[in-house]
UniProtKB/TrEMBL annotation:
Species of the source: Amycolatopsis thermoflava
Protein name (record): Uncharacterized protein
Keyword Transmembrane helix: yes
Entry keyword set: Membrane, Transmembrane, Transmembrane helix
Transmembrane residue ranges: 6-24, 44-64, 76-95
């Protein structure tokens, strides 16, 4: 089985392979960027959820301690507002949002 290719056919074939590789790499870059954007968005939502959960926990504990109050609305507002602020600060302080530096295009992992 002999294959006879002209020079122009080989150049066209090599160009087609090169074009295919370039399209494949650009698709991989786009997918990587899209995944990174999705992770960044999920971090924000996850942080908000943890803040609300910690706030609910702190309010619940304080509510059990201070149940003898007669004015429940005032007591709830007085306890919930500082807990919301404290939960936000503690959650932000204890959460790792970025592990290391971002790599540029040519760096190895």
């Amino acid at each position: 089985m002999n294959v006879n290719l002209t020079t122009s056919q080989m150049v066209v074939g090599a160009g087609g392979i090169l074009l295919l590789l370039m399209v494949w790499r650009s698709g991989a870059r786009r997918a990587r960027k899209a995944a990174e954007r999705a992770r960044d968005g999920a971090r924000v939502v996850s942080l908000a959820g943890r803040v609300l959960l910690m706030t609910a926990g702190l309010v619940g504990i304080q509510w059990l301690v201070f149940t003898h109050s007669t004015d429940t609305t005032l007591r709830l507002v007085a306890l919930a507002l500082p807990d919301l602020i404290a939960a936000y600060v503690l959650t932000r302080a204890l959460t790792v949002t970025d592990l290391g530096t971002r790599r540029s295009r040519g760096d190895r992992r």
